[in-house]
Design a protein that fits this description.
723 residues; seven-stranded antiparallel β-sheet; four-stranded antiparallel β-sheet; disordered N terminus; Peptidase M50; MBTPS2
């Protein structure tokens, strides 16, 4: 609040101003940003206001006896370089009245004071604050907090802070050595089964967070006016009123108070980590995990984040000594954009716009905050879409997410253009402003037309060659390769023997089945003349069962002779070296491929699979030979690809060494499920083999340029959510 913001009105009649400054207010001098301010504390409303020396002096002149002329005269005599008129005195009196810093005995003066009506959005925000954060004050804790602070004084000492930081680092090292606990962890953080424990962890964590603010504020001399229970978005948490930190003169102490909640939560998270690792499976272990995650990850991403108005923001404000950093940054950048684009200068922003010393801070903060808010809007849209997808309302979720993003963009445009368009007829330099506005309008229309141009989506990916027809030769029982009758590169026919396995277990079971059958048949033939018909039928049935068992093992023994089922070529290298090697049941021993029919298999993420269709044109280049080829998409799989279907070549899209084991594909697949597009290789050369790679460009569905740019930006900035 500056005196420059007062409206210039005609001089008022010389009357006594009935406003009288309250005598219970506490004024405390403070150095902030190398400037002197006065912190005014309201002990009844527990509110704090920061005034420059001129405004603090002007406030003391309201004694209920002076006129506006007298107040202006005294002020101008004391501050000759900043003169004010009676109208400004009256305006300042209105500001003090709205902040409940004065006593007004005469109600008839209320109508004479200019008032600024609160906006609809301001009233709406106050309503939601009351609804979503309900406080129930219980105690005034300063007395017993002193005893706690006295016993834990070392936590706020330099040595205590160093030890605490070392404790955090040691905990990180401890978790690194016990990282297998994360791999074997069975807790699904956002699952319905975990909601209650997550709810309980938030209650404990945020209550300790507020307690950290209270004890730290008390440690550095601030008063804790009240402590109680609050409903934060209907979650019961403890809360404290540590606003007295405003009057703490030491800047470092104020920063410590602002970050005390994060400081406390990281201690809680570190302690919870040890409980989570060492406790046996059960409720306590799950609660410790939720508390560890809530007190560490969410704290660092939200409370410590200076781009949101939480603890990190207020600590940054004290560090930079720029009060209302967020509001000033947006106001300054808005004023600059209005001046550059429209030639419009808002008189109420002149003071903010001219803060050239902090200009780079305002620009950086406003840009980062805007990008972060865009990220939040997009993330919220993706969460809504994924939430509605299982019930068949994915399109509704996409519409809601898109609407949220459009509303965010419109809010920025309205902030920049609405006031200049509304006030342009009342400002000076109308022609210049209209000229700039015309160019902006022309540019906007041209940009809109450009965004409506029809284009095609394009997908750039990598394809790996696979044979359309092939056989992976396996054995249902496994065994040791005893004989080999083929070699690498040999052309084989259906039914041709390939190799023979030796499996001692199958051989033994076959011989036992044969021996059991022979003994049973001998015994049956010796006693047949003396048996009754019923016994004979029973024995005959037993022999049939044993014969079926013997035939089963004969078949298993026959399966140790592996044969080709297709007409193709042996593509496995060094087949001769397989002799004497053991293969497990189901393990691939040889690969036979039809060398006349090949397809490129290209992975597509969810976003890409929606714009690629059967028959789409494909242009590619072979990585090995650099030859260009053309083809089309035969079909796109409707089911998500399994991790086992990925070829290691898919991980190296631009050539280079192919990893033997795709170590990161499972993690990537879990974040971003993939589909496969199958592209036939037309007229394959004689050197075509499986595993060859090609960089390909698929022409997708028709769209407009604006949507294509939007998809590109969202994939670039928010890949893990969009894709």
């Amino acid at each position: 609040m500056t005196l420059g913001g007062f409206s210039q009105q005609s001089t008022t009649k010389e009357k006594i101003v009935p406003y009288r400054l309250r005598t219970d207010l506490i004024f405390q001098k403070q150095i902030f940003g190398n400037k002197t301010y006065y912190i005014v504390k309201d002990p009844l409303g527990l509110s704090y206001y920061r005034f420059p020396p001129q405004e603090a002096f002007l406030a003391t002149l309201f004694d209920g006896k002076r006129t506006t002329e007298e107040i202006a005269e005294i002020f101008n005599a004391h501050w000759p370089h900043r003169k004010i008129n009676p109208a400004e005195v009256l305006r300042f009196a209105s500001i003090l009245s709205r902040r409940n810093l004065t006593i007004l005995p005469a109600n008839q003066w209320m109508d004479q004071l200019p008032r600024k009506a609160s906006s609809f959005f301001h009233q709406l925000s106050k309503f939601f604050v009351k609804i979503f954060f309900i406080k129930f004050p219980l105690v005034r804790p300063s007395s017993w907090l002193d005893r706690i602070v006295h016993r834990l004084w070392w936590l706020w000492s330099f040595q205590g802070v160093v030890l605490t930081v070392c404790f955090w680092l040691f905990t990180l090292l401890f978790l690194f050595f016990h990282r297998t606990s994360f791999i074997t962890n069975q807790i699904q953080f956002f699952s319905p089964q975990n909601i209650f424990l997550l709810y309980l962890a938030i209650i404990i964590d945020k209550s300790l967070h507020e307690f950290g603010h209270a004890t730290t504020c008390r440690r550095f001399g601030g008063e804790i006016h009240e402590m109680g229970v609050g409903l934060f978005f209907f979650i019961p948490v403890g809360y404290v009123d540590a606003s007295d930190s405003w009057v703490i003169p030491d800047k470092k102490a104020r920063i410590f108070v602002g970050l005390a909640g994060v400081y406390t939560e990281l201690i809680v998270a570190s302690i919870a980590a040890y409980f989570w690792v060492f406790l046996p499976l059960g409720l306590a272990k799950n609660l410790a995990f939720n508390l560890m995650v809530t007190a560490s990850v969410t704290t660092l991403f939200f409370n410590f984040n200076p781009l949101m108005k939480f603890d990190g923001y207020y600590a940054l404000v004290d560090l930079l000594e720029i009060p209302n950093l967020r509001e000033k940054s947006f106001a300054y950048c808005t004023a600059k954009l209005q001046e550059w684009l429209l030639g419009y200068q808002d008189p109420s922003n002149q003071g903010k716009k001219n803060e050239s010393i902090n200009a780079w801070i305002f620009f950086i903060y406003s840009i980062l905050s805007t990008v972060y808010m865009a990220y939040l809007c997009h993330s919220i849209g993706q969460v809504v879409r994924n939430f509605l997808k299982p019930i068949g309302l994915e399109r509704v979720g996409e519409f809601l997410g898109f609407s949220l993003e459009v509303a965010f963009v419109m809010a920025i445009l309205l902030r920049i253009f609405f006031q200049p368009l509304l006030m342009i007829s009342k400002t000076e330099g109308i022609k210049k402003s209209l000229c700039k506005l015309q160019w902006v309008a022309i540019g906007g229309v041209a940009l809109g037309i450009l965004c409506m141009l029809p284009v095609r989506e394009k997908v750039r990916t990598v394809g790996v060659v696979r044979s359309d027809f092939g056989q992976n030769v396996t054995s249902p029982d496994g065994g040791i390769v005893q004989e080999i009758w083929v070699y690498s590169g040999e052309q084989v026919k259906p039914g041709q023997p390939l190799l023979k396995l030796r499996n001692d277990k199958v051989e033994t079971e076959t011989q036992l089945a044969r021996l059991d059958l022979a003994l049973k048949m001998v015994g049956f033939s010796n006693k047949r003349t003396f048996q009754q018909k019923d016994e004979e039928a029973s024995k005959s049935k037993e022999i049939q069962v044993m014969k079926s068992r013997y035939d089963y093992f004969l078949k298993k023994k026959e399966q140790l002779f592996l044969r080709s089922s297709i007409d193709g070529i042996i593509v496995s290298p060094n087949v001769e070296s397989l002799k004497g090697r053991y293969f497990k049941a189901g393990e691939t021993i040889l690969k036979i491929r039809d060398m006349h029919h090949f397809s490129l298999v290209a992975p597509l993420n969810q976003s890409q699979s929606r714009i690629v269709y059967s028959g789409a044109e494909v242009k590619g280049i072979w990585i090995s030979t650099k030859k260009i080829f053309h083809s089309h998409v035969a079909h796109v799989s409707q089911k998500m690809a399994d991790v086992s279907e990925f070829d290691p070549g898919h991980l190296v899209p631009y050539g280079g060494k192919v990893p033997l084991i795709p170590s990161n594909i499972k993690k990537e697949y879990e974040k971003n499920p993939f589909y496969f597009a199958y592209i036939p290789v037309e007229s394959p050369s004689q050197f075509m083999v499986e595993g060859l790679r090609a960089k390909i460009v698929i022409k997708g569905r028709k769209t407009i340029l604006g949507k294509k740019i939007y998809r590109f930006l969202t994939a670039l900035l928010f890949y893990k959510h969009e894709e």
